[in-house]
């Protein structure tokens, strides 16, 4: 069952998300997105995912906001003659259709927090939880899975970050070299 | 169980679906390229919320083995940690391309960009 604090946080992040979508000034949208990332980082803590919360707070709210601010510093903000954008009706129709079709599956999903859900009773989950400490000597099961059992995934992730760095250097070559 | 209770048990999933909708709207509806990137990030977080909510068990500890059992599933947490970092790399490259587009065409507005390209 969801607590009032969690429900309030969900309402907060949804309001921030709507604000990012509708605010015309890009700087204002970035600030709303920063607040959104912070709210969702707190939600991760409520959902017992402290590692994800830390990453979200540092990377989502921190690095991402800096990258977005650097981008508008190097480019432009649209002239803010209006506070809000005009609602784009075709886009609204597409997103409403998406939400309605996804929501049709809502009651087929197990309740959040159910201990008999497929994820909770899964063989892989329980293998990791039972054997992570003996096999890797790491007490944080998330770290054990990330760096040991699924180390190749993390290696792939490092390759992605490296490629992104190379890609950025190629794209911004003119600016880096002057 | 009444319908309202069933809905209250699934509010996280509903919020995730709404975030996907808001992300899609920003991605399609916004004219500004930077805002499209923000919309893409909102969409991603919607998927993260779905995964992390699926891992949650009421009354369970975080997957730190020093805490008392039962634990929430660590596997979705690991997948989402990887996804967050990949998402940031994606955003960085997208914003780099946006900076180049602005250097080249002097605008970040989708419509104006299309007109400038048509003129060439």
Automatic annotation (TrEMBL), chain A:
The chain crosses the membrane at residues 6-23, 30-47, 59-75, 87-109, 155-172. GO terms for cellular component: plasma membrane. Residues 11-76 form the MrpA C-terminal/MbhD domain. InterPro entries: CPA3_Na-H_Antiporter_A, MrpA_C/MbhD, MrpA_C/MbhE, Nuo/plastoQ_OxRdtase_6_NuoJ. Its main location: membrane. Residues 120-174 form the MrpA C-terminal/MbhE domain. The keyword Transmembrane applies. The keyword Transmembrane applies. It is a multi-pass membrane protein. Keywords: Cell membrane, Membrane, Transmembrane, Transmembrane helix, Transport. It is found in: Cell membrane. This is DUF4040 domain-containing protein. It comes from Halosegnis rubeus. The lineage of its organism: Archaea, Methanobacteriati, Methanobacteriota, Stenosarchaea group, Halobacteria.
TrEMBL record, chain B:
Keywords: Membrane, Transmembrane, Transmembrane helix. The chain crosses the membrane at residues 12-34, 46-65, 77-99. It is a multi-pass membrane protein. GO terms for cellular component: membrane. Gene3D superfamilies: 1.10.287.3510. Its main location: membrane. It comes from the Archaea. It is found in: Membrane. Signal peptide: none annotated. The keyword Transmembrane applies. NCBIfam families: PRK07375.1-6. PANTHER family: ANTIPORTER SUBUNIT MNHC2-RELATED (PTHR34583), MULTISUBUNIT SODIUM_HYDROGEN ANTIPORTER, MNHC SUBUNIT (PTHR34583:SF3). This is Cation:proton antiporter. It comes from Halosegnis rubeus.
């Amino acid at each position: 069952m969801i607590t009032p604090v969690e429900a309030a946080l969900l309402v907060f992040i949804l309001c921030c998300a709507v604000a990012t979508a509708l605010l015309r000034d890009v700087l204002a949208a970035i600030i709303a997105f920063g607040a959104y990332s912070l709210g969702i980082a707190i939600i991760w803590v409520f959902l017992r995912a402290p590692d994800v919360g830390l990453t979200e707070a540092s990377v989502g709210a921190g690095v991402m906001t800096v990258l977005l601010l650097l981008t508008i510093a190097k480019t432009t903000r649209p002239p803010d003659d209006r506070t809000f954008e005009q609602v784009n009706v075709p886009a609204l129709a597409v997103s409403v259709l998406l939400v309605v079709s996804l929501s049709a599956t809502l009651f087929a999903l197990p309740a959040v927090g159910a201990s008999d859900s497929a994820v909770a009773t899964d063989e892989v989950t329980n293998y990791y939880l039972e054997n992570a400490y003996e096999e890797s000597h790491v007490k944080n099961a998330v770290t054990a899975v990330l760096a040991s059992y699924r180390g190749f995934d993390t290696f792939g992730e490092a390759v992605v970050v490296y490629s992104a760095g190379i890609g950025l250097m190629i794209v911004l070559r003119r600016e880096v070299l002057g | 169980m009444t319908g309202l209770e069933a809905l209250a048990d699934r509010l996280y999933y509903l919020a995730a679906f709404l975030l996907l909708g808001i992300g899609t709207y920003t991605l399609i509806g916004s004219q500004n390229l930077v805002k499209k990137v923000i919309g893409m990030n909102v969409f991603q977080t919607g998927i993260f919320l779905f995964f992390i909510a699926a891992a949650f068990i009421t009354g369970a500890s975080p997957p730190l083995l020093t805490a008392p059992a039962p634990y929430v599933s660590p596997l979705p947490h690991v997948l989402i940690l990887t996804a967050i970092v990949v998402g940031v790399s994606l955003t960085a490259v997208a914003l780099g391309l946006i900076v180049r587009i602005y250097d080249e065409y002097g605008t970040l507005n989708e419509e104006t960009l299309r007109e400038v390209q048509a003129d060439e």
